[in-house]
Design goal:
The chain is mainly α. Helix content is 38%, strand content 9%. It is globular. The chain binds zinc ion.
């Protein structure tokens, strides 16, 4: 895994209950007007869920790019240890854990990003959340698909 740009947030569906969830370039996403604030809105032709182009922006104001953060989470899902990630990416263990706790507050979106960019399996994603469940704050692990993502429009 080398540094690279993440796939466009409007190239795949962000709805976890959609058959096209996290699968880029299926041709199921179309432009769907703009928000009152002028942000481009998109719609999945399959599930009809709409979302805005900023939906993928989960990590604001971090020193590391979102690409790096998502890559570290993908490495964790692929069963790399925190020590290994520190060695390979130069990111401290507590930093990765802090990202993982932030990710846990946006399960549907983070999984969409990981699926779209790293072709992870359901089991790998689950393993990653178990990790934050074990090592993170007690009760910090939300149920996937509990509420509508705040980025939905
Ligand atoms: Zn969809």
């Amino acid at each position: 895994m080398s540094n690279r740009m993440l796939v466009s947030p409007y190239s795949f569906c962000w709805n976890a209950s959609c058959s096209a969830y996290g699968q880029p370039d299926l041709g199921n996403i179309r432009k769907f007007g703009r928000t009152p604030g002028g942000v481009q809105r998109y719609q999945c032709r399959l599930c009809h869920r709409t979302f805005v182009e900023t939906i993928g922006t989960v990590f604001y104001g971090r020193r590391r790019s979102q690409e790096t953060i998502i890559e570290c989470l993908a490495l964790l899902a692929e069963r790399n240890s925190l020590a290994a990630i520190h060695r390979v990416k130069g990111v401290k263990e507590e930093t990765v854990m802090a990202w993982l706790r932030t990710a846990a507050a946006h399960v549907e979106r983070i999984e969409a990003l990981l699926l779209a960019n790293y072709k992870l399996t359901r089991a790998q994603l689950d393993a990653m959340w178990v990790y934050v469940g074990n090592k993170g704050e007690k009760g910090a692990m939300p149920k996937p698909m509990s509420a509508a993502p705040s980025g939905a429009a």
